[in-house]
Please model this.
Amino acid sequence: MAGRQASVGVLSFLAGALLCLVSCTTATYRVTSRPLPPDLDAYLAAQEAKIVGLIPADARRVLWAGAAGQSTPLSIVFLHGYQATPHDYDGVVDALGHALHANIYFARLSGYGVTTEAVADVTLSDWLNDAWEAMDIGRQIGDRVIVVGSSMGGDLALWLGSRHPPDLEGLVLLSCAVWAKDPRAGMLLWPWPLPQLITRLVVGKYNILSYDAVRYPGGDPALYARYYPARYRSESTIKLLRVMQLTRTLQLESIATPSVWLYSERDEAVDIATLKGCYQRVGSDPKRLVSVPDAPGHMLAGDVFSPSTSSEVVADIMAFLADAHVSALP
Model:
């Protein structure tokens, strides 16, 4: 009996080691440039019209600082996060655009902002191509680009920074999802079909979305109901971990773009110790790590979740950009 138990233990150890090795392999992806026409408004409207089940308010769009089609010295690209929408930081991103007199592109990542199950078919390459196109749009609507990334959008922003685009002027990372707070998250990087089985057994077929009034008592449930679908396929969580896995392979030390990292110690989703470790590694010059003490959780501010902290977050970002000499002036 003892020998059998020992054999089972050895087999379990070997299986675990194999799973770890497989899960730690470098994520693969392919990125291709998408040609953009001069009329971005018409282009985005035509592309979004093809999306089945799109929530109209979540469509990709440009918020022009002046006349439509007129470029500005600075532009802002906003990349939302996991199971999120382009409206996550309304009240923050638009305030930054106003202060900097910058055009803003609000991206919508593939599979999100829809009432269908499209996210089940989304790949890592899809989201990276979304981010790369967002950067292309940013440089078309502005001479220099600031990328604002929320949660998983922060990972995509870091990936853009690792590719060293010369016109990337700054990175603003809001609760950057470099790793999950749940210690079991790594299981979702195990080989197929284990992650799928785990999500189905633990979560079910769907992640059900609802407004968390306990954590975000000062937010607006009506806005949440307008912008967010009722559910997403649980495979979406596996795809989030693939993005995090990619972030762990980036040479953060090579990123020279100025970056400001804002976070909350109350964050219920991101491992803050890992976030601080990544901040220490990033080669940004200058860089700043900013705790938002009044933020209620992972979502630091914005009209939907915490409008009371929006002005504080905007002030922190603007102070950093001023110190980094990022302004609309040449």
